[in-house]
Amino acid sequence: MSGVNKVILVGHLGKDPEVRHLEGGATVVNFTLATTENYTKDGRKVEQTEWHNVVMWRGLADVAAKFLQKGKLVYIEGKLRTRSYDDREGNKRYVTEIVAENFNMLGRRSDNDTVNQPGAANQGSAKAEEHIADFNSGNAEDDLPF
Amino acid sequence: MSGVNKVILVGHLGKDPEVRHLEGGATVVNFTLATTENYTKDGRKVEQTEWHNVVMWRGLADVAAKFLQKGKLVYIEGKLRTRSYDDREGNKRYVTEIVAENFNMLGRRSDNDTVNQPGAANQGSAKAEEHIADFNSGNAEDDLPF
Amino acid sequence: MSGVNKVILVGHLGKDPEVRHLEGGATVVNFTLATTENYTKDGRKVEQTEWHNVVMWRGLADVAAKFLQKGKLVYIEGKLRTRSYDDREGNKRYVTEIVAENFNMLGRRSDNDTVNQPGAANQGSAKAEEHIADFNSGNAEDDLPF
Amino acid sequence: MSGVNKVILVGHLGKDPEVRHLEGGATVVNFTLATTENYTKDGRKVEQTEWHNVVMWRGLADVAAKFLQKGKLVYIEGKLRTRSYDDREGNKRYVTEIVAENFNMLGRRSDNDTVNQPGAANQGSAKAEEHIADFNSGNAEDDLPF
DNA sequence: TTTT
DNA sequence: TTTT
Fold first, then answer.
1. What is the pLDDT along chain A (146 residues), one digit of tens a residue?
2. Which of A3, A38, A82 sits opposite C37 (nearest CB)?
3. What is the CATH code for A7-105?
4. Where does the record place Polar residues bias (chains A, B, C, D) (predicted)?
5. Closest residue, chain C, to B130 (C-alpha)
6. Is B109 in a helix, a strand, or coil?
7. For chain B, what are the domain ranges?
8. Which pTM value belongs to this model?
């Protein structure tokens, strides 16, 4: 019945997204994301990094495949899913992944350009933003007389 | 550019949703939601309630109109929007609302029945859940061979 | 560096919290939490449950140990942490847990009573709320002349 | 009773934080934050900006006063609070503010330097991160034998 | 293993 | 105006 399963991450990609195309045509993308926490303990600075396995599907995966790269800073919203698989010895193993429902590139626009050539500059992320907007949308209420 | 504007509330409706139908046919629903915080201050228990103005549009509003009522406990996810209007004296005023993107009825199912007659019992919220599921969905990836 | 690692769950405890006391005196509590999602797929209702491993430490664990039980509906906020351990065959394994930073019992107060005897009734959760308030607090700004 | 009131924002400061020191010695900081959403409507790109009133108190305000500036990209977590005040004509008015409980500077470290002189470079934000860590912490469980 |  |  009632349930909420929500994850919010801001971090950097540990590698370029790994892209696969399933038989049905759907795109799936996987990458790791590092979230780092800084705190002081016993007067000393500690930096602690947590690595997350992120999965994106379909349209979101298509956008990610085009615009996300190793090192980019992103905001990700999704849900937790633990799935099992059999390892090489035939033992059941579990992985917990974040199934992304939404993402947002952070940082400077120039950081987000796939290419940064004169004449082409900033096109990349502009399009990315437009596409991401499609996923973020569902807010087209703004045309209402209110 | 990059932006995140997210609100997460769990609270009780202060009144039944007020339903309007716009000329284009879209449904809009408004209600207030109370979130209460308890803490101890100077050794005394304090209960502090915050009131939020919630708006829902279209399909989400239709579901809300059917199943939400004064007193219900609900989880709401949405975004902040401050809009201006002119008061009776013609002065510009501002209100901040939560434009809901998603909601979830909490508590016992029996709490969520509009009617609770023999034969009709539990139909109400069961349908609510099904409908709400439509809005929560976008998770139909589960049919993929993975 | 910059990082956000946040999890928000609303679900039911799958079992009573398992309580341990570490040598230093700190309490640790573990339990599983089910979050259930309902959606319709190909016209049929589907109910999908995800199980989460939740850990609580110290003061939060003490409150949890007193007031949480199998079946309770609870809101939990925390962060993801994946840790490794060696299984019985000496192989490295990984588990992802939600390290709770905050929680909130939902549902009716009567649902939350440990005991419900005349004379003792409601004491349980009333104290729970007071204690939880201590963890939720950090909002003592309210004494300021503003 | 049970309640959750949570806001998560990622956006840019519209102005430098305005700092006040209350009689008791507590620091209060106010600033506006812009969150921008991009979407396509009727095939045209739309950029919509929402402005939020953010308040920070005490230690968090001290850190903000030192390190936040107009234009910075920041992640903020807090709660909604609507308070009333009397305008110049003696009429009751309401403002909704985000009372921040936590924040995180995003973007490149170099973006976060208050000063960027040779020899002093990067000191600013490094210290900011250390201090912010103090507020983010409460995760000192890591010293436990587990 | 929860809940509806 | 909710809820406990």
1. 579 999 999 999 999 999 999 999 999 999 999 999 999 999 999 999 999 999 999 999 999 999 999 999 999 999 999 999 998 888 889 999 999 999 999 976 544 433 323 332 222 232 333 333 333 333 333 333 22
2. A3
3. 2.40.50.140
4. 113-125
5. C39
6. helix
7. 7-105
8. 0.81
